[in-house]
Amino acid sequence: MIMDFLIAAALMGGMGAILAVVLAIADRKFYVWEDPRINQVEALLPHANCGACGCAGCHAFAEKAVNGEISPGKCTVNSPEGIAAVAALLKVAAGSEEKRVARLACAGGTHVARQKAQYSGLESCRAAALVNGGGKGCSWGCLGLADCRRACDFNAIHMDAHGLPVVTESRCTACGDCVEACPKGLFSLHVVSHRLWVACRNLLQGDAAEAECEVACTACGRCAVDAPAGLISITNNLAVVDYSKNRLATQVPIERCPTGAIVWIDEKKGVVKGMEAKRITRKSPLPVALALLPVGAASEMKGSR
Amino acid sequence: MPLLEAITGKRLWRGVHVPEHKEDTERLPIRRMPFAPLLVIPLSQHNGAPSIPIVHEGQEVVRGEPIAKAAGFMSIPMHAPATGRVQRIALAPGARGELGLAIYLAPYLSASQEILYGAPRDIADMTPAEIVQAVQDTGVVGLGGAAFPTHVKLKVPEGRTIDTVVVNGCECEPYLTTDHRIMLEQSAQVLHGTRVAMKALGAPRAVIGVEDNKMDAVAALRQANGSATDITVESVPARYPQGAEKMLVKVLLNREVPSAGLPSEVGLAVFNVATLAQIGDLLPRRGGLIERVITIAGPGVKKPGNFLVALGTPLRWALEQAACTDRVSSVVLGGPMMGAAVGSLDVPVTKGVSGILVLEDDHGPAHHNYIHPCIKCAACVDVCPMHLNPSRLGLLARKERYEEMETDFHLMDCFECGCCSYVCPSQIPLVQYFRISKQMNRERKARA
């Protein structure tokens, strides 16, 4: 009886020893040298794997950083201390990147933008956009069903009382997930010094634009006239800021905007509208006329096979 | 199922039985609708490049006169639906929610519905190429809803032969009765159009497939056909989606259109009856497609019916003619299964609109919007006419694994008939998921 145990133990022990030797040889034979600093750098990164730096995740970034192909500052998610620590470890310059954030080119919340119909399908902007473009009167405007909030890994987007996403700049890492998520393509990434901002994409002119949304750009052209030459142009009935001339930007062009479509995003005060922008006092949503059903769901005879 | 088919020898396929709701309108003859005070004719009513306007603001046009020309082979011209004056060429809301260029035409108050433009011609001696050109000039598109330019389908693809023309008279969508009425009232035009298509394609025979809930239409077509043997009229079981091209071809001729393929790969060309009726009517008189038959029905309509409507008639006008109740909550273009809801009554009737379905408050899904988890009951798998696995596709879509859906689970074979959503006891909006997935895949390919 005791012998059986001994044999079993010896067999298993022997097998273990042989395999250990094989593994030890393989470890030496197939050893690939990897710079130990890659793992050290990776440990200092935020592990968000967001891709904002353009690399396929944090490990890839660490590899590139160690090889000197990318500066530590390119990781916009990292804290300044973290960037400094990586730079110190690699003995390179931190490389300052100006912080970029996602900005929404729409200000048409439910209290100012007309809903032509009520969408009642799957709770997703993508789905709503496929049903007659969503219920919004403005074909270009935000649908407010929060695809961007769900796409954001950093909790940087929340929906306000009027169904518009609000980006918390301190949390935004400019990873670009919201840019991809939005079916209307309303998000874009900008450095924070781009303070002049047109919060509208409506391509209609004048009353036609304003009929759908009280804060739409009506292409009146006042901002373009007031701005330094070439900074703002009216293209396709929409004011467009040429950010290559951003150093000329001041608050002057926003002052005479009648609808407040062009705003100044101030460092401290947040979104600033011009003096002549009409005051919006309504808090409640505008009324809706029609219901919008998704495809296939219009059948009221559901469930009988 | 295939085993059962082998044993019984019957061609069984999947799909669902849906309540037909056709009784309100199937016996009502086609009626003309008066002109709306302003017609809106979008320049992109079809698949393909938008037409190019050839009129200017303020110009006077005659009913039937071309007002826009085709932009290449994959495009069609447009014709003036009424005698009147071009008011402006500007953006107008479309049925998909987009804004597109449209010609606004104000008909004269005294404008007659008589068509004075055009000239008779002999089409007996036309060559296939001439027929293709002549059909393009009429501006006819697939009137079943796809709005694919018909002349493109009349051109035999390089290296293929078409042996049979299949004419689709199924109309499996609930509520719609336009094809039914056309087969009854315009049997001669349907047969005439079918012979034109056969000639253009060089096909020796044609089969007209009609669902067996419209036996009066079968009788009417057979009577009009007389003793001719080149066209046969067959009834097929009424079942949704029998009117889908691939289903009909399988049932009528037991041929299977390959995945991601066209019917021409198995020697077939499929047309809707209404399309061929228009060709049979327009071609001999050099006309243009300026009006179409639509069914206006649903619980929200007091006077439902089949109407011959000038293209460009705003839905608001069309619904006034059919006397809507005051509890209308939603308006769907097409049938309830595949139709698209519209968000604005300023949307005009276009070439691809086969019906307007009007629903009231208490209909529709607003009351049961909650999506329950998938219980893997496989009801959707049982009904999917394309033999896909909607349950699995739905789960993948929720996980946003869109690429895998296309490469491993044949997402692109789904033609969005809606059977899976219809039977799902958990009320999972499967078709919506698939439409999103297709859209995401398109965007991904466009980026790459």
Offer a quick outline of the entry.
The complex is a heterodimer of chains A (305) and B (448). In chain A, 28% of the residues lie in helices and 13% in strands.
CATH topology of the largest domain in chain A: Alpha-Beta Plaits
Shape of chain B: globular
Greatest interface (CB-CB under 8 A), with counts per chain: A-B, 36 and 53 residues
Give me the oligomer status. heterodimer
Total E-strand runs of chain A: 11
As for the CATH topology of the domain at 16-24 and 124-285 in chain B, it is: Rossmann fold
Number of domains of chain A: 2
Broad structural category of chain B:
alpha/beta
Write out key terms for the chains shown.
heterodimer; A: 305 residues; alpha+beta; 3-methyladenine DNA Glycosylase II, Chain A, domain 3; Alpha-Beta Plaits; 2 domains; three-stranded antiparallel beta sheet; two-stranded antiparallel ribbon; 9 helices; 11 strands; elongated; disordered C terminus; B: 448 residues; alpha/beta; Rossmann fold; six-stranded mixed beta sheet; four-stranded antiparallel beta sheet
Write structural notes for this entry.
The complex is a heterodimer of chains A (305) and B (448). Chain A is of the alpha+beta class and 305 residues long. Chain A has 2 domains: 36-90, Electron transport complex subunit B, putative Fe-S cluster (3-methyladenine DNA Glycosylase II, Chain A, domain 3); 101-292, Alpha-Beta Plaits. Chain A has 9 helices and 11 strands. In chain A, helix 2 (36-44) packs across helix 3 (58-66). Chain A is elongated. In chain A, 42% of the residues are buried. Chain B has 448 residues and is α/β, with parallel strands linked by helices. Chain B has helices at residues 2-8, 128-138, 150-153, 178-185, 187-201, 215-225, 245-253, 273-282, 315-321, 379-383, 390-398, 402-409, 419-423, 430-447, and strands at residues 31-32, 39-42, 52-53, 60-61, 66-69, 78-79, 84-93, 99-107, 164-169, 205-211, 231-236, 268-272, 291-297, 305-310, 328-333, 340-341, 355-360. Chain B is globular and about 60 Å long. Among the domains of chain B are: 16-24 and 124-285, 3-Layer(aba) Sandwich (Rossmann fold); 379-447, no CATH class. Helix content of chain B is 28%, strand content 19%. The mean pLDDT of chain B is 89. In chain B, the strands form 4 sheets. A 6-stranded mixed β-sheet of chain B has the order 1-14-13-17-15-16, sandwiched between helices. Chains A and B meet through helix 5 and strand 11 of A and strand 15, strand 16, helix 13 and helix 14 of B.
